[in-house]
Structure formats: structure tokens, C-alpha cells
Amino acid sequence: MNVATPPYxxxxxxxxxSAWRQSLYPQDARTSDLLELYxxxxxxxxxxxxxxxxxxxxxxxxxxxxxxxxxxxTAKFPGDISHAGDLREHLxxxxxxxxxxxxxxxxxxxxxxxxxxxxxxHRLGELATFIDALEGRALAVEVRNIGFFDKGEGERMLNRxxxxxxxxxxxxxxxxxxxxxxxxxxxxxxxxxxxxxxxxPAALTxxxxxxxxxxxxxxxxxxxxxxWALKVAAWxxxxxxxxxxxxxxxxxxxxxxxxRFHEQLLTLLPGLPELPTLERGPEVQQLGLL
Length: 290
Known about the structure:
Layout: E1 9-12, H1 34-38, E2 44-47, H2 48-52, H3 57-66, E3 72-75, H4 79-82, H5 91-101, E4 111-114, H6 124-133, E5 139-142, H7 153-165, E6 168-169, E7 171-173, H8 175-178, H9 185-193, E8 209-213, H10 222-237, E9 243-247, H11 254-268
Parallel strand pairs: 1-2, 1-9, 2-3, 4-5, 5-6, 7-8, 8-9
Helix pairs in contact: 6-7, 10-11
């Protein structure tokens, strides 16, 4: 499919939600075809899958075969690297992970290093050594310790370290999620797992990174979506190439939220191309018993 691509990267936390056959994918889509179909609509995806388990090398080869060159897969370092003690003890594992993902070439950028809430400003020396060992690979870092959000010395040191090394600071906006009062199990689960930290819309490099955690009622996200559309439009006009990933509590509505975001951005930058829509085929009729 030859279509114009947006001047920024937009996507969802994953591509493999079976429920998206009700909204994004054809209802008869095979599971093995979902990534290729996803990449016909969105031009980026969060690499959450690699945080939980390393893919087989044959799986990475298959991804490389179906993903277009302009696509971006922000592969997360596995949790046994980012969440298992001193980062300096996992440099060999990190290099092995880079080799595993190598068939994707430039489509794996930036790599994401998501650090736990226990990773405090006192451990910035570990982070500096880890970044330097990657030898210039495009990297973005997400921090969750409150010491990086108090506008004090810890935050200034982090931002300076990242700026000096050309590494982006991932901005997570969980305000919509935590503005939701609900007994929905999906909402409660998300609120128990996602960090509630201040918003830091950093642009330390040409590639700002945004993770937006929305509410399940899509229209309730509009005030937050409008704010981010203004910020992303400004970044694009500055010559930056932002990455924006849209979540909902169970991610069933994530593609719809992503479309809403892009539509809002279109009102600010009318020359942007529309996101493609997949041909979903006729609705499947459920036949009752005679």
C-alpha cells in the first residue's frame, strides 16, 4: 500500500489485540497477519512485547519481512536488564539484545529503557555507563522515581545527562487515567500499574517521545488530546519528529483514540495525510437456529 506517511510517528502499545477485529482489522484476519495490517494504518508501535520476553530470532526475521522501512518499533530492553539491579551488570545482555533485534535495522529506533520507580537520582552513574556502552544507538529513557520530577538537582542532573548524550526523556501522561473514577476492573488494574507522576513534555532531541494513557470514554480525553495536539504540532513546526503512543485502560479502544489524536492534529496542520483505513469486508452475520 503506497500512501503518504505523517511527519511524525503515531501508534498503539501493541498490534495483536484480538478485539481490534471489531474496529481496526478485518474480522477474518489471521493472527499471523496482524502486524502487517497494523503497519498499513500506523507507522510506529511500542515494543512492549520485548520487555516481557525476548522474541525468537525467527520472529524478528518475520517482523523484518513485513514491516516497511519507514516504520518504527520502539523496542524496550527486557525487564531482566532494566529492572534487575545495577545496569552495569547487564551490558553484555544489552548487547545480545541489540544483536537479536538487528534484522529490523533502523526500524528499531529509538530503543526504550524503562526504569523502575526504585531507580533514583543516586544511580545516574549506572545510567551514564549504560548509555555510553551503546555506542551512539538512538535511545529514550523513561524514569518513574519521584526524585526525577521535583524540579530539583536530581531532575536537572538527569536532563543534563540525557541532553549531553543525545538521549530523549520519555514523557508519560497518565492524567486522563487518574482523572477517571470507575469500578471497571480494567481501569482499576491500569491505575494500580501505571505511574502517577507529573507530566514532563521534554524535547531533548529531535525525537520527543509521548505515552498518553487515556480514559475508556474516548470523548473524556478530548481536553488532554487537544493539549498534546498543540504541543506535537509545535514540535513538528520546529522540525522535530515526535513519537506519540495512545493507550486506554485495556487498550481495546487504543486505535480509536489514536485516530482521534491524529484528527485533532489535522485541524492544526491541515496538510497532514489522513490515516489509512483497512478494508474490513462485509459484516459477519450470526445465524440463529431455525
